[in-house]
Write a structure and sequence with these properties.
The structure is a single chain. By secondary structure, this protein is an alpha/beta fold. It has a single domain, classed as 3-Layer(aba) Sandwich (Aminopeptidase), CATH 3.40.630. The protein has 9 helices and 12 strands. The strands form 3 sheets. It has a 6-stranded mixed beta sheet with strand order 4-5-7-6-8-11, sandwiched between helices. The chain has a 3-stranded antiparallel beta sheet with strand order 2-1-3. The chain is globular and about 55 Å long. The N terminus is likely disordered. Belongs to the peptidase M28 family. M28E subfamily. One of its GO terms (molecular function) is metal ion binding. This is Leucine aminopeptidase 1.
């Protein structure tokens, strides 16, 4: 049996102009809470008011989003035996150890010392993982002007001279937050240590399996997601400026909370690429024990929106039922379902292999 999917992405690039800073907006951030309107300048207290209400928002300060991005992408799957062999290598004990340590930091708030320390620890884990890779790999930090917390990117360089400029992205945010304030503990085991470990375990399995893709695969861990998707927007903006050819992006956020009897992965259908979502459903049908169900997420609900805003094809699979302890002290490791997290790793591995190994069309 051979997996097959073909999709085309064709759009045009049109820019919009953001508000300019002035003496009245100095020190504030330009925030949007919906697709409509130009946004509102807010100070930190006002932003924390949004966080306390669980409101979705995007920090669009210094961003100039294109409406869409030009491009035609044809994707054809490979034999699933390659993916299935890699699926046998996933390790729940290894993932549990990571989340235990990552969620034991007091919080991972982007401005806190433990937010910096936790990011540095994550970087060390990625660097250690990359040491034994048989192909070409780089690991780097991405510094941000708005935060002392950096993002982290691991890059497996594609082996095909023609295709290596085409990029597959697997991402998750590394920060956590407590809606009660920046000085409160925020273990963030589900949100988003569980998503971070999905990305890391995907990288680990590909490296242990000696997998060398034709296209380049990047693994992203974003800073400052909880305060308006800032880290991912900064990176997506750079990729847009540099005209990086991103063929597909999948964002893993809150994959860990499980509700008994709901063996389903949520596929969010708004502010994403419909074509990539079709691809995700195909992967779930072929590689996962769980099935899928469509859901609506709302404006600016996670980092995939940054890539969508810059015209890149992105997607967002997540837990089906929202964790009631999200952004609270109770978001702890005991609420994480490792069987479910492993299902997301299967999906991520399928995404990495199938999208980085296009067949001959």
């Amino acid at each position: 049996m051979k997996l097959l999917i073909l999709f085309a992405l064709s759009v045009a690039l049109v820019s919009s102009s953001p508000f300019e800073r002035n003496e009245f907006t100095s020190g504030k951030r330009l925030i949007k809470t919906s697709q409509e309107g130009a946004g509102q300048w807010m100070d930190e207290d006002e932003i924390w008011g949004l966080i306390a209400k669980h409101a979705n928002f995007i920090d669009i300060t210094d961003h100039n989003f294109p409406d869409v991005k030009e491009g035609d992408v044809n994707v054809k799957g490979i034999f699933p035996s390659v993916v299935n062999a890699l699926l046998e290598r996933t390790s729940i004990p290894r993932m549990l150890d990571f989340v235990q340590t990552f969620s034991n930091f007091f919080n991972r708030y982007h401005q806190s010392q433990t937010g910096i320390d936790s990011q540095k620890w994550l970087l060390s884990q990625v660097q250690q993982t990359a040491v034994d890779y048989v192909g070409e790999i780089t690991v780097s930090e991405v510094a941000h002007s708005f935060s002392p917390q950096s993002s982290v990117i691991a890059r497996i360089v594609g082996s095909d001279p023609t295709l290596r400029s085409e990029i597959v992205i697997i991402g998750a945010h590394l920060d956590s937050i407590n809606m009660a304030g920046s000085t409160r503990t925020a273990p963030g085991a589900d949100d988003n240590a569980s998503g971070s470990v999905v990305v890391l375990e995907t990288l680990r399995v590909l490296i242990e399996g000696g997998y060398i893709p034709k296209r380049t695969i990047e693994f992203h861990w974003y800073a400052a997601e909880e305060v308006g998707l800032r880290g991912s927007a900064d990176i997506a903006s750079t990729y847009n400026t540099n005209r990086v050819n991103v063929v597909g992006m999948v964002n893993f956020d809150i994959p860990g909370y499980y509700t008994q009897g709901r063996d389903e992965i949520a596929i969010y259908t708004d502010y994403v690429s419909a074509e990539v979502n079709t691809f995700l459903r195909l992967l779930i049908d072929n590689y996962c024990t769980f099935t899928w169900r469509n859901r609506v997420c709302g404006y600016g609900c996670s980092d995939h929106a940054s890539w969508t805003n810059y015209g890149f094809p992105s997607s967002f699979p997540a837990e089906l039922v929202d964790n009631p302890q999200m952004h609270r002290v109770g978001d702890t490791i005991d609420l994480v379902s490792w069987t479910q997290v492993n299902e997301f790793v299967k999906l991520s591995l399928g995404f990495a292999v199938e999208l980085s190994e296009p067949g001959t069309l």
